[in-house]
Design a protein that fits this description.
Blueprint lengths: L13 E7 L3 E8 L8 E2 L3 E6 L3 E6 L4 E6 L5 E3 L4 E5 L6 E8 L2
Antiparallel strand pairs: 1-2, 2-9, 3-8, 4-7, 4-9, 5-6, 5-8
């Protein structure tokens, strides 16, 4: 696990599962300012659809990478990705995550 000491002081992002079928899981993620998901590994390929425009910070376990995101501009990642997602903005950040089951 690649948690950092400062992560214990961060508020947790809130996830709300909106839908699950035999083919996909759709989850809304809401990050308060400074909030994070916590260290996790993705079990499925997934698509992220930002609802908010702003930056997210991705902690890879070795470095923090800033990712500028724009409302409605989606991206995808493969299963197995390990990271912590952090909202460095001074406003709530929201995205929809769609996990693709095999």
């Amino acid at each position: 696990m690649a948690e950092r000491a400062e992560d214990a002081r961060r508020p947790q992002a809130r996830s709300t599962r909106q839908l699950e079928t035999d083919r996909a899981i759709v989850t809304e993620w809401r990050f308060p300012p400074g909030g994070h998901t916590g260290w996790h590994r993705h079990g499925y390929d997934y698509i992220v659809v930002p609802v908010t425009t702003g930056d997210l910070a991705i902690w890879t376990g070795e470095q923090e990478i800033r990712a500028p995101l724009a409302t409605g501009v989606s991206y995808t990642r493969a299963a197995g990705v390990e990271h912590d997602v952090i909202n460095p903005n001074d406003f709530e950040f929201v995205f929809i995550e769609i996990e693709l089951k095999p």
